[in-house]
Amino acid sequence: MNDHGAIAFVGKWKAPAPAKPGAGIFVDGTLVVKAGDQVSNLATGVLFKSFKDPVLDNRGHVAFIAQLTGTGITSTNDLVVATNGRNGAIEVLAQEGAVAADADGATYKTFTAVSIKGEVPPVVLTSVLPGSDSGIVFLGSLTKGTGTTPVDTTNDSVAWWLPQGGESVVKLIREKDVTTLTGAPTIKTFNILKALGGSPAHGRGQISGDTCQLQVALSSNAQALVEATPTGLAFYDLTGDSIGSTAITDAKWSKVNFQSSDSTGDLQATVGTLQVIKGGTVTAPQAKGIFVTEDHGVHWEPVARTAAADAPGMGALAKFASFRDPVHSSTDAGIAFLGAAKGGAVAPATDNGLWYQADGGALSLIAREGSEPPSATSAKYKVFTSVALPGGPIGPIFTALLEKGPAGTAGPGGVVSANDTVLYGVNSLGTLQQVIREGSVLPGIPGKTVKVFNVLKVVSGTAGTTRCFNNGAHIVALVTFSDNSVSIVDIDMPF
C-alpha cells in the first residue's frame, strides 16, 4: 500500500473454457503484468511465468521478483528483478546468470528483496541527471567463482539500485568493498532491506528514490551507520565516536544497530551500546539503550536505557532489561519499541511490553504482557509479535497473541486457538483499540467471521520494506473468513 491508498498485489483468476486461468500483478483493479506476457527488454519468446509479491511507490509504480519461462530459459537464468518504475513500462533490471552491474564480470546468482520509492510530484534531484521516475533497490548475491577476482563467501552479497533520476543499475554496496575511512577498512557485512525481529513489516533501508540508509560492520571490527546517495556512501556514527549527547556528555558508541528513520533521514532511532570507560559516567549495566537523533546523527539522546530510570508503566523499581529494534514514524519524531523490564513487582509473565513516544510527548507503556487488551474482557496479552509505526495521525500498530489455556482449553476471557491472534492500533486520540481479531466480525463486512489474517509479516521477496499500512491511517490485511472466502481488506483507522 502506498501513501495515497493504492494497493499492489498478486492475484489469480479462473475462467470458463476456452479461456484459461491466469495470474498477475494488480494495482487496485488494474492489471499491470500477467503470466505469459512477453518480457519487453529480453529476447522474443521469453515470458513471465510467476511473481513474488510486489512493492508499490507513491507514483503507482511497482517492483517485484519474478520467474521466467520460454526461449532459452533454464533453472540457471529464470529469476529476475522487474519494475515499471523507470517510465511506466515493465522491464527487467537484472537477470540470474547475467553479468552483474559493477561486479568485475561476476554474474547474478539470486535475488532476495526489492524496494521502490517515488513521489508525486517527483522530488527535485540535484545530484543526478533526469532518468528513472522511481528509485529501485534490490538485494542479492553473486555466483561463486565468477568474476575477475573470483567471488567467494566473503564478497558474494551485494545491493544494487537504479536511483531515481538514474539511467542504469549500479552497485550500491558489496561485501569487501574498500571504504574511504582511515585505514581503508573493508565492508565485512551490511544491513539493508532486512526484516528485523519484532518489526518485520516496518521498512528500513530505502527512504527515498535516491537515498538509502544502511548499517555496516567493518573489517576493523567497528560498526557504522551509512547513508547512500548516487554520489557514494557517507559514513557516520562509527564505533568510538561520541554520540553527541547533552544528557551523557562523555558517551561513545560501542555498537550501533540498523537504524529506523523518517522519510528525510534526519530523524532516526536505533538500539545502541555505549562504551564503558574507566572513570566515565557510563556503567556496564546502563550501557544499552534506545537512542534518537533529530539532526541526522550529529547528536543522539537516550530515550530509555537498561538499569537506568524506571520503565514507564511497569511499577516502582522496575528497570528496562532489554530492547528490540525501535520503529520510527515516517512523518515526525515518534518512535515505538518492544522491550522487557525487571525489578520491583515485575514477574516473568508480565515483563514484556510495548512503549511509545509520540512526537513531542513522553515515553509511555501502550501494552503489557499479562494485562487485559481492549475489547477482550478478562483476556491477557501473551506475546507481542510485530510492531510498526505508520506516522501521520495514528500511533503504533501491532499484532499479539492472547493467552490460551493448557492442552487446548480456553484461557482467560475464553481465548482459544481460533481467536487468539489480534491486530491492535493506537488511534489519533491516543486510544488503543482492537482492529482485527480471529473469530470476530469486521466492521462493514456483516455476517463474515475472520478465520485467519495476514498483516505485519515478512513477505518473501520484499523483506525490509514497509507493508500493510500507510501514513494516512489505513491498514490493509489479507483476510480468510470462516466460509473460506479470501479478501484484501482496507481498514481506515478511526480518528
Word description of this protein:
The protein has 495 residues and is an all-beta fold. Among the domains are: 1-175, no CATH class; 370-495, no CATH class. The chain has no helices and 34 strands. Strands 4, 5, 6, 7 and 8 form a five-stranded antiparallel β-sheet that branches. Strands 13, 14, 15, 16 and 17 form a five-stranded antiparallel β-sheet that branches. Strands 18, 19, 20, 21 and 22 form a five-stranded antiparallel β-sheet that branches. The radius of gyration is 24 Å and the shape is globular. The mean pLDDT is 95.
Give a concise summary.
Strands 4, 5, 6, 7 and 8 form a five-stranded antiparallel β-sheet that branches. Strands 13, 14, 15, 16 and 17 form a five-stranded antiparallel β-sheet that branches. Strands 18, 19, 20, 21 and 22 form a five-stranded antiparallel β-sheet that branches. Helix content is 0%, strand content 40%. Among the domains are: 1-175, no CATH class; 370-495, no CATH class.
Observed structural traits:
mainly beta; 40% strand; 5-stranded antiparallel beta sheet; 34 strands; globular
Helices and strands in order:
Elements: E1 8-13, E2 22-27, E3 30-34, E4 46-51, E5 55-56, E6 62-70, E7 79-83, E8 91-95, E9 108-117, E10 135-142, E11 157-162, E12 170-174, E13 187-191, E14 206-208, E15 211-218, E16 223-229, E17 232-236, E18 253-256, E19 260-261, E20 268-274, E21 288-293, E22 300-305, E23 319-323, E24 327-328, E25 335-342, E26 352-357, E27 364-368, E28 381-388, E29 397-402, E30 421-426, E31 432-437, E32 450-454, E33 474-481, E34 486-492
Antiparallel strand pairs: 1-2, 2-3, 4-6, 5-6, 6-7, 7-8, 9-10, 10-11, 11-12, 13-15, 14-15, 15-16, 16-17, 18-20, 19-20, 20-21, 21-22, 23-25, 24-25, 25-26, 26-27, 28-29, 29-30, 30-31, 32-33, 33-34
